[in-house]
Design brief:
single chain; 339 residues; 48% strand; 23 strands
């Protein structure tokens, strides 16, 4: 793919929505990853940062804009984990730094202080344990500090960072589990709600039955909607994907009204992005990629309706030199506030 010709083709319109997107490089020693601004209304792209995000780092987990700074989870597992920081206050961005961490972040949220993030991640222990962290000093000359706010019990991990969803004061997580005699893959889940200030777990519920592994569920104490992967038992695809209603109001989390995603638009999604004042969730997935383009969708999570809002031209499928990386709203992120 030629780096200078990522184009946005005509698609459904999403007024005034702009995203920060990582055009990731997979060639160590070659071109660096780029940070781009995608304008869904103008159907255009703009290079914010052309160099500095070395290809040794992978940018497929969480990212967020806090004020004039873009933060992105940088992974070189198991060698190292870090947070990259880019000043986006001007038309041309400036790399502030890439700060190493002693744990693997998955999703991030703006903290209350400048240079601070709230993040959920996994330590390097055996077994791996997930924690809620406060990370500070990210923009200073000294090493960043990390403090554990709360810890989850032993859980199953299917590799989807989209299971982590922040609200203003809480972290919602739907981890994967397996039930049944035969080991055919993750087929159910368990839900947690953790307080961002204290780390206390106020909700921990098991799923009822085997509706599939949770891939992405909108945060709620009651009824919401989500995406689930059901094991196929060794068919062409390991999992089929479904859009379902989720009810967490009872003793167990119940899943119903499932509609199969026959086009596999929800397969291998990155963390969906949200913008203040916009009720849509924006994402791209490997399930809809071709060697010619990668569509970006807006999801109405109350109905499951998807509309294509942008089209990235180019080959982002392995063994291409590039991959479609993390995406977040280009203005300071506002997390969901539950009513």
């Amino acid at each position: 793919m030629v780096r200078g010709i990522i184009l946005a083709l005509c698609a459904s319109q999403a007024a005034a929505t702009k995203m920060m997107f990582v055009n990731g490089s997979q060639v160590v020693g070659g071109a660096d990853s780029q940070l781009l601004e995608l304008d869904f209304e103008a159907k255009s792209t703009r290079v914010v940062l052309d160099s500095g995000l070395d290809a040794t780092w992978s940018f497929v987990d969480g990212s967020v804009v806090c004020g004039d700074l873009w933060y992105g989870v940088a992974s070189n597992f198991p060698v190292g984990m870090a947070i990259a920081i880019v000043d986006i206050s001007n038309s041309t961005g400036k790399l502030v730094g890439i700060q190493s961490l002693d744990f693997k972040p998955h999703h991030i949220k703006c903290g209350k202080e400048f240079g601070q993030l709230i993040t959920v991640g996994a330590d390097n222990g055996n077994p791996t344990t997930f924690h809620l962290y406060s990370v500070g000093n990210l923009t200073s000359a000294v090493s960043p500090t990390s403090t554990i706010i709360g810890t989850f019990p032993k859980v199953g991990w299917a590799g989807y960072p989209s299971i982590f969803q922040f609200t203003e004061d809480s972290l919602y997580v739907h981890f994967s589990k397996h039930v049944g005699i035969f080991d055919t893959g993750f087929n159910t889940g368990e839900m947690f709600k953790m307080d961002l200030a204290t780390g206390s777990i106020s909700i921990h519920k098991q799923y009822s039955g085997a509706p599939g592994m949770p891939v992405f569920v909108t945060p709620s104490d009651g009824k919401s909607w989500g995406v689930f992967g059901k094991p196929t038992g060794g068919q062409e695809h390991a999992y089929d994907y479904y859009f379902c209603q989720v009810d967490a109001s009872g003793a167990k989390v119940k899943v119903s009204q499932c509609k199969q995603d026959t086009e596999r638009k929800w397969f291998n999604i990155e963390i969906p992005a949200t913008c203040a004042g916009d009720d849509k969730y924006y994402f791209h997935s490997r399930g809809t990629q071709t060697h010619a383009d990668t569509p970006i969708f807006a999801a109405d999570m109350s109905s499951g309706d998807l509309s294509q809002v942008f089209d990235l031209q180019g080959d982002f499928i392995y063994p291409s030199e590039y991959y479609a990386g993390a995406m977040t709203c280009s203005t300071s992120s506002a997390t969901r506030i539950l009513v």
